[in-house]
Amino acid sequence: MHDEKTFEAESNRDLKHRLVLEGRAHAALVFDGARAVGWLEYGTPAELPNIYHSKEYEAGLEQLPDYRLTCFFTDRSYRRRGVSSVALQGALTLIAQSGGGRVEAYPQDTGGKKITASFLYNGTRTLFEKAGFTYERAKGKNHCVMSKTVTPGH
Q: Which of 8, 45, 84, 109 is the least crowded, having the fewest Cβ atoms under 10 Å away?
């Protein structure tokens, strides 16, 4: 997927739209009525091959996960209202419906400090701990690798 990505918003929007239609891009969407107010992108490592701090990640890698959770978005007027938590639960439900497996996330490890919400595109370690994820290791200066096994279900 990344090989097709450009540095132009219009072509990236078109690419993302095509990947969604082809079933090669996935996200858990959060709605307020008919308005999408947040989402969490997820996919297999083949669908989402590039992650930040990849050299550090690969140095500690024992086995690739079945799924990666890579990027949250929350509309500015909905931040700090639980949208990320709803998106995370939605993604885990969708992964369970697709057969489950080991899921990795790469959240910001804030160390309890307040961080501007616009920088939390990977979520926080606390968010993932509350959802049952286990801390595995540091990745980069302020991020970490966390994982959870999701059982198949509905």
A: 8
Kindly compute the dihedral angle of the four CA atoms of residues 149, 94, 119, 143, in this order, to the nearest 10 degrees: 10
Q: Is residue 118 pLDDT above 70, yes or no?
A: no
| Spatial distance between the Cα atoms of 58 and 101, rounded to a whole number of angstroms | 20
Give the pLDDT confidence score for residue 1 in this predicted structure. Answer: 44
Q: What angle do CA 32, 33, 36 make, to 5 degrees?
A: 50
Distance from C-alpha of 42 to C-alpha of 92, rounded to nearest angstrom:
9
Token pair, residue 125, equals 């370690």
Beta carbons within 8 Å of 145's beta carbon, 6+ residues apart: 57, 60, 104, 105, 106, 135, 136, 137, 138, 139
- Render pLDDT for 40-70 as a digit per residue (tens, 0 to 9): 999 999 888 888 788 888 888 889 999 999 9
